[in-house]
Specification:
28% strand; 163 residues; single chain; Rossmann fold
């Protein structure tokens, strides 16, 4: 299923002109991202991975084989020094625990992506397994930022803007 999600992500119209994409280093039960990182690298697309610096998520340039270090919660983050300004990102892949069809998400509780996404004009794309997309709505707080798309093994959800 992870390979199908990766293929759907790569086929998105938003990816056609993307020059710089921020992915995440998957861990636990998240959609695997290693194949995406490698594939984008082969295509010549610059890949950034997130690094936590204080209360912020910083996009750091990453090529396959670059060194990483474990975080306190189990993911890995790049140790490289080349950061990428959020305004230069074309697409940001967003992890999460659960999503709804309106683009709301439950993350891991620290709000890193909620602070990063407003600083960029990039398309935000949740990578999720279908069982993570709940039929009902999720609660949302004032600082929560919705994603533009949700890509699952069964399709792509494009939430409609609130009316």
């Amino acid at each position: 299923m992870g390979a199908l999600i990766a293929d759907r992500f790569l086929a998105l119209p938003e990816m056609e002109a993307a020059r710089t994409v921020m992915l995440f280093w998957s861990f636990g039960s998240e959609v695997p991202t290693a194949r995406l990182i490698e594939h984008l690298h082969v295509l010549g697309v610059a890949v950034a991975l997130p690094r936590i610096e204080g209360s912020e998520l910083v996009p750091v340039r990453f090529d396959p084989g670059d060194p990483t270090e474990p975080t306190s919660f189990g993911a890995r983050e790049p140790v490289g020094a080349t950061t990428i300004a959020p305004g230069r990102l074309d697409v940001v892949a967003v992890p999460g625990v659960a999503f709804d069809r309106r683009g709301r998400r439950v993350g891991y509780g620290r709000g890193y992506y909620d602070r990063l996404l407003p600083t960029t004009s990039a398309s935000s794309v949740a990578l999720a397994f279908g069982l993570q997309v709940l039929p009902g709505g999720l609660p949302a707080g004032g600082a929560d930022v919705e994603v533009d798309l949700i890509v699952t093994e069964s399709g792509t959800i494009r939430p409609e803007p609130p009316t």
